[in-house]
UniProtKB/TrEMBL annotation:
Residues 131-164 form a coiled coil. Residues 197-264 form the Cns1/TTC4 wheel domain. It comes from Edaphochlamys debaryana. Keywords: Coiled coil, Repeat, TPR repeat. The keyword Coiled coil applies. Residues 1-31 are annotated as: Disordered. GO terms for biological process: protein folding. Gene3D superfamilies: Tetratricopeptide repeat domain. This is Cns1/TTC4 wheel domain-containing protein. GO terms for molecular function: Hsp70 protein binding; Hsp90 protein binding. GO terms for cellular component: cytosol; nucleus. It holds the Pfam family Wheel.
């Protein structure tokens, strides 16, 4: 039997497999086949067409028919991705194959690939102008594409409306010369400054006491407020002492404030808008975004003149805000202050 099989020409083998597949398909579509039998016959048809392709005849038309027929069966089985692949392969072998184009368009529609579906319909109508098979799918694809376009336009408009306040805030920050790096500080729900109707900015500000690990929050630090205004309230004669400051070193006339200069690489415009929307900016995870240890832009501590406004300090050339303004509080004439400055320079 093997010898006889070897004597059969490849084209004849492929033709036989095609006929087997066609017979299986015909039986599957007959009224006599129940659901289970139908699926079995369809799978057997797929296998027959696959065996025909495995012969690898040089006849492109034969291979195109086998692929197109297998695509048809895959459609019936609900294997739309495989159907599309087979139909496109058939079209590649035999451009203008209307059946292959129709089956490819049908598979594309089932996959909701409406742009490809419409293109295939147009190609099919060009190949056979008299054909009416493509009209329904082309109309559906056009309607779906328009619906998709409208949804995308609405989504873009909604995204722009959502981003508008953040964009205005980012523009206000940039106009003042403020630079922000990737967010390193957040205060609960407060992740950004507030842009007031009069155009002024109010920041939540974090004060850290590195000596104790404690912190204070100034909820509304106006950019035109001076630091001494807030320090007078926090450390003045009537203010309660810090719980951990047993030596009362943090008296008003001894408190000093510092910020970390060059705390990170400034965010770009689009990254800043994302940050002002409360999102993590794209690309902010790169290693070079953080503070540098060496060079002219190495991170180092800078003392704040308490008579300066927050605006003046934030606009300093070397000041890069780590999400929200962060300042270190230490007491003058203490052993800890010296260690702190030595560690931060």
């Amino acid at each position: 039997m093997q010898a006889i099989d070897e004597e059969v020409p490849p084209e004849e083998k492929a033709e036989n497999f095609k006929k087997q597949g066609n017979n299986k398909l015909r039986l599957a579509q007959s009224d006599k086949a129940d659901t289970a039998a139908r699926r079995t016959l369809l799978r057997e048809a797929v296998q027959a067409y696959t065996d025909g392709l495995a012969v690898k005849v040089s006849n492109a038309q034969m291979n195109a028919v086998l692929l197109s027929n297998r695509a048809h069966v895959q459609l019936l089985l609900g294997n739309f991705r495989k159907a599309l692949e087979d139909a496109l392969a058939a079209r590649q072998l035999e451009p203008g194959n209307v059946k292959a184009l129709f089956r490819a368009a049908r598979a594309a529609s089932k996959l909701a690939q409406w742009g490809q579906c419409l293109a295939l319909c147009e190609e099919g109508r060009a190949a056979d102008p008299a054909s009416k098979e493509f009209e329904g799918m082309a109309k559906e694809a056009s309607a779906k594409l328009e619906e998709q376009r409208q949804k995308e336009a609405a989504a873009a408009a909604a995204a722009e409306a959502e981003a508008a306040p953040a964009r205005a805030l980012a523009e206000a920050l940039t106009a003042r010369g403020y630079k922000l790096t990737r967010p390193q500080v957040s205060l609960g729900q407060r992740t950004r400054p507030e842009l007031r109707p009069d155009g002024s900015l109010v920041w939540p500000v974090l004060l850290l006491y590195p000596e104790s690990g404690g912190q204070d929050v100034v909820e509304a630090f106006g950019e035109e407020d001076t630091f001494e205004e807030h320090l007078d309230m926090m450390f003045g004669p009537e203010a309660p002492p810090l719980e951990w400051d047993a030596d009362r070193a943090y008296a008003r006339d001894r408190v000093e404030l510092y910020y970390l200069a060059h705390a990170g690489r400034p965010l770009g415009r689009d990254q800043l808008v994302e940050a002002m929307q409360g999102r993590w900016p794209k690309g902010a995870d790169s290693a070079d975004m953080g503070p540098q240890r060496y060079g002219s832009r190495a991170a180092r501590l800078r003392r704040i003149n308490p008579r300066h406004t927050l605006r003046k300090v934030l606009a300093s050339e070397d000041h890069v805000v780590p999400g929200l303004p962060l300042f270190f509080v230490v007491a003058r004439d203490t052993a800890y202050r010296q260690r702190f400055l030595e560690s931060g320079q």
